[in-house]
Amino acid sequence: MALKSLSLQNFRNYKKASFDVSPNLTLIVGKNTAGKTNFIEAIYYLSHGKSFKTEKDIEAIFSGKEIGKVSALTDTTKLEVILANLPERFSKRLLVNGISRRRGDFMGNLLSVLFSPEDLNLIIGSPYLRRSFLNDVLEQIDKEYRFASIAYDKALRQRNSLLQKIKETGIRKREEFIYWDNLLIKNGQVITKKREDFIQFINRSKKKLFVLKAVYDHSKISEERLLEYKEAEEGSGVTLVGPHRDDFFVLFEERPPFAKASTDDKSLADRSDGQGRNLKSFGSRGQQRLAILQLKILQLDFIEESLGERPLLLLDDIFSELDSSHIDLVMENINRQQTIITTTHKEFVEKRLKNLEVIELENGKN
Known about the structure:
With 366 residues, this protein is of the alpha/beta class.
């Protein structure tokens, strides 16, 4: 499916605006406050049913307005996200061809892969960023994964609430845990299996930019594991095992000559096991960025292999963060799918690419 047009009403800095986009390459040009990232965020909402910028949907509504709306036409579907900050309550509605859908059913109607400056911290950042990357890949293409994640999160919240009460009172009622434990285990195992499948895809796929291997450091969830951590969980008031504590790390083939491993460091992430060295600990910043570019391309490939179509690629102002050689590598992969690029300098992209549609944003005129 291809995105044909985008309409915004009271969304971020846009009061009312409509845009047609190219089926091939669209360049969004504007100053840093013109709304380029907001443009990309709007498309992400239509693709994922949520923002990548904030967990609070209310922040996306134009200041002082009660209702914000994002809508789009693809070659097959009309998609809408309506955010309403009304006196009685806040609400978010996700609509496909005018019919309200749950987020689990809304996703998958507009496939996209986002590459933003924040993604450049994927290797060196917290495990949360890498779990978010896994979710971003799998939630779009796998309905079972989407609903397993929803059920798992609900069970985790309820179970943590029970553990917090035990921490405060010292009293545990076993029967209160049975339902939530079973829900956690059942859905957690689905999540783990789907993540393992994607990690295996990464490792068996050909890498054109950077040779790497992903190692899934998963937190196994089972009845036995919950029993093993029972006392520790009661003391901390939170669930200590399960995919909400997963991580993965990236190994690369050659060890830089300056890297020296400590003989005392026995951690999984930093060990040398004959398969490479941990990129986070021993790779240069340039190598880390190449690896992230490679992971994003593999994300595109995985979605295409799974669903038979290549997703929309969103490049949000990444050229200011990349050197010339990395930019050229990105450009080599742009024409394989519909792509939308934001930048502050039109000439910077135009001299590298031809046949692109340009949308210029101006402050206060959206």
